[in-house]
Amino acid sequence: QVQLVESGGGLVQPGGSLSLSCAASGRIFRISAMGWYRQAPGNKRELVASISSGGTTNYTDSVKGRFTISRDNAKNTLYLQMKHLKSEDTAVYYCNGGASFRRLVNGELFAAWGQGTQVTVSS
């Protein structure tokens, strides 16, 4: 069973930056597409950034140019660097993986959700 542990969230002012990490157990991480999701109160969980096993990235329009997803397969770790944060980025952020980008979009994921990490953007 793959386990995912997110960290790095916190309180930041608008325009600030944060870096999130996701530590994954299991060899499947290296061959999987990985994604960062977020869920704000009252909203559905949404995929905001993804990266293939080969390093191809995708971003939802609202975070393009501000967020950068990366991965270190040797460390089984996924990262999300967030800059120019806005109040609408406030959410609990989660990571997860799947066989392809489409599987990430469709919610066909290989692990149960972790506890997530809270990101709050507020002055």
Describe the fold and architecture:
The chain is mainly beta. The protein has one helix at residues 101-106; strands at 4-7, 10-12, 18-24, 33-39, 46-51, 57-59, 67-72, 77-82, 91-98, 117-121. The chain has a 6-stranded mixed sheet with strand order 2-10-9-4-5-6. Strand 4 and strand 5 form a beta hairpin. It is globular, with a radius of gyration of 13 Å.
Offer a concise description of the structure.
This protein is mainly β and 123 residues long. It has 1 helix and 10 strands, in the order E-E-E-E-E-E-E-E-E-H-E.
What labels would you give this structure?
six-stranded mixed β-sheet; 123 residues; mainly beta
Write the layout of secondary structure elements.
Layout: E1 4-7, E2 10-12, E3 18-24, E4 33-39, E5 46-51, E6 57-59, E7 67-72, E8 77-82, E9 91-98, H1 101-106, E10 117-121
Parallel strand pairs: 2-10
Antiparallel strand pairs: 1-3, 3-8, 4-5, 4-9, 5-6, 7-8, 9-10
Please provide the ordered H/E string of secondary-structure elements: EEEEEEEEEHE
Query: What's the shape?
Result: globular
Give a short account of the largest sheet: 6 strands, mixed
**How many E strands?**
10
Treating each run of at least 4 consecutive H or I residues as one helix, how many helices?
1
The class by helix and strand makeup works out as: mainly beta
Oligomer: single chain
Distance between the termini: 40 Å
Strand order of the largest sheet: 2-10-9-4-5-6
Strand content: 35-45%
Residue-averaged pLDDT: 95
Low-confidence segments: none
Rg computed from alpha carbons, rounded to a whole number of angstroms: 13 Å
Q: Percentage of helical residues?
A: under 10%
